[in-house]
Design goal:
Layout lengths: L8 E6 L5 H14 L1 E5 L11 H11 L3 E4 L15 E4 L8 H21 L1
Parallel strand pairs: 1-2, 1-3, 3-4
Helix pairs in contact: 1-3
């Protein structure tokens, strides 16, 4: 009988600007911690270019943070209190640990602001 796969809490969505190697390194580390991530080219949003479609997908799945290297991306007004758009810097030269700490510190700050309102 096959061993049951663990169910990860998916909190992060990486768009198509995130390189494949970097995504898989981050995902492996997140899986060790019990969390998951979605990469746009591997998801149902594979060909989506509209950020509203991506935000609707993330909201339906309970994903809170959208991470992107694209600097000009802006979150639509109707999703501003519900999702957080995180602009990553440094490309593949930034370490995985730094990116993960940035993700979780942004998530913590976002949830704290949400509860303060």
């Amino acid at each position: 009988m096959r061993k049951e796969r663990p169910k990860y809490t998916t909190l992060f969505f990486f768009d198509r600007t995130v390189p494949r190697e970097l995504y898989y390194k981050i995902q492996r580390r997140l899986n060790i911690m019990g969390y998951g991530a979605v990469w746009q080219p591997n998801s149902a949003m594979r060909g989506a270019r509209n950020l509203e479609e991506i935000c609707t997908y993330c909201k339906a799945r309970g994903i809170k943070i959208i991470a992107s290297f694209y600097r000009d991306l802006r979150l639509p007004k109707q999703f501003e209190g519900e999702l957080l758009l995180l602009h990553l810097k440094g490309g593949r030269h930034k370490s995985v640990n730094k990116i993960i700490s940035l993700l979780f510190s942004s998530l913590r700050r976002f949830e704290r602001e949400k509860t303060d309102k």
